[in-house]
Specification:
This protein is mainly α. It is built from four helices and no strands.
């Protein structure tokens, strides 16, 4: 499912980038256009990260790392949607109140990066343990 969310978010980032550049740029303020560019950039970066995590799920059996990566992907997906879509909705529909969701999305994305760090540490520990167990045998 993570791979699917990554693909959808990647598609949306490209589609919304084109819409912002060709449809919205002439009719919105420079400040709102900068907001959109930030949202699009975050959307694109995290779509790639989410997709890579989804591909990792397809090819790995490291139980501890997979559990942490599931949490990581949930945080990245949720944070990206809240962060980016609050800006998309605010600017395109002229609803500035939606920008209040942006910081929450940003915090969730930061938690996703911390969870990815935890997943990396757990994966390293499990790999070291397996190597040690193999050397004993």
């Amino acid at each position: 499912m993570t791979l699917i969310y990554g693909a959808i978010l990647g598609f949306i980032s490209v589609a919304f980038g084109a819409y912002a550049e060709h449809g919205l740029k002439p009719i919105i303020t420079d400040e709102n256009f900068r907001f959109l560019l930030t949202a699009i950039r975050y959307n694109q970066v995290h779509a790639v990260v989410i997709t890579v995590i989804g591909l990792f799920f397809l090819s790995n059996d490291n139980h501890l790392a997979l559990t942490s990566l599931r949490r990581t992907s949930f945080l990245f997906i949720t944070g990206t949607i809240i962060f980016c879509f609050s800006i998309y909705i605010s600017v395109t529909l002229n609803l500035p109140g939606f920008l209040y969701g942006t910081p929450f999305g940003g915090v969730i994305i930061m938690l996703g990066w911390l969870m990815l760090l935890i997943a990396g540490v757990e994966a390293k520990k499990e790999k070291t343990k397996k190597e040690t167990d193999q050397n004993i045998i």
